[in-house]
Amino acid sequence: QSALTQPRSVSGSPAQSVTISCTGTSSDVGGYNYVSWYQHHPGKAPKLMIYDVIKRPSGVPDRFSGSKSGNTASLTISGLQVEDEADYYCCSYAGSNTLAVFGGGTKLTVL
Amino acid sequence: QVQLQESGPGLVKASETLSLTCAVSDSSIISSGYYWGWIRQPPGKGLEWIGTISHSGSTYYSVSLKSRVTVSVDTSKNHFSLRLTSVTASDTAIYYCARRNRPAAFDIWGQGTMVTVSS
């Protein structure tokens, strides 16, 4: 099972919006509506931001939204804030044997 | 509030076995209905799913690690464990345990524990 493909880095200015893509195959991203996104600040535990492609856990700001088209999922962060600067990882269900496959991660820089 | 805490040796010799434990507080591993997993992050690299165990004891492993990994549960201590055999330098990583509440969605994580494989 290969890792999902994410851009290495993205950047944006405060108040702007950015979108991070996550490309897989019909065996993972495209085959199930089970994509999640994690925010990871170095030295801390990853934090679940989106699950089931579009759902936000309690406490996650509605500035964070998820979507999917075909084999590509996306995380959009609107109204960028300095504290959003972090690494972001997507993760997809890939069947009853491979319960999870992660993307390579995207470093978000808020300029 | 459910909390997870990893524990185990921070240094393991190459070719030996890495063993870690994840203590779960304020939630029963067996009766909660959740799945419980291990994820790691090598230095400078991304997250990698290692394996998951269900509340009923079914196990699921990464294809690339399957031959060396065992995840198990100790119901008496309410913790679950990771065992990785024949380790090499490429197994050096921060190891996290986490609760899975939906497919591919890990909603509660431990703080992580760094394991270094030495030659």
Question: What features would you describe in this structure?
Answer:
Helix content of chain A is 0%, strand content 41%. With 111 residues, chain A is an all-beta fold. In chain A, the strands form two sheets. In chain A, strands 1, 3, 4, 7, 8 and 9 form a six-stranded mixed sheet that branches. The model of chain A has no long low-confidence stretch (mean pLDDT 96). Chain B is an all-beta fold and 119 residues long. Helix content of chain B is 0%, strand content 55%. The chains are: A mainly beta (111), B mainly beta (119).
Give descriptors for this structure.
heterodimer; A: 111 residues; mainly beta; 6-stranded mixed beta sheet; 0% helix; B: 119 residues; 4-stranded antiparallel beta sheet; globular
Quick overview:
The complex is a heterodimer of chains A (111) and B (119). Chain A has strands at 9-12, 18-23, 35-40, 47-50, 64-69, 72-77, 86-92, 101-102, 106-110.
Low-confidence stretches of chain B: none
The Rg value of chain B, from CA coordinates, equals: 13 Å
Q: pLDDT average of chain B, as an integer?
A: 95
Biggest sheet overview of chain A: 6 strands, mixed
What's the layout of helices and strands?
The complex is a heterodimer of chains A (111) and B (119).
Chain A (H helix, E strand, L loop, with lengths): L8 E4 L5 E6 L11 E6 L6 E4 L13 E6 L2 E6 L8 E7 L8 E2 L3 E5 L1
Parallel strand pairs in A: 1-9
Antiparallel strand pairs in A: 2-6, 3-4, 3-7, 5-6, 7-8, 7-9
Chain B lengths: L2 E5 L3 E3 L4 E8 L9 E7 L6 E6 L5 E3 L7 E6 L4 E6 L8 E10 L2 E5 L3 E6 L1
Parallel strand pairs in B: 2-11
Antiparallel strand pairs in B: 1-3, 3-8, 4-5, 4-9, 5-6, 7-8, 9-10, 9-11
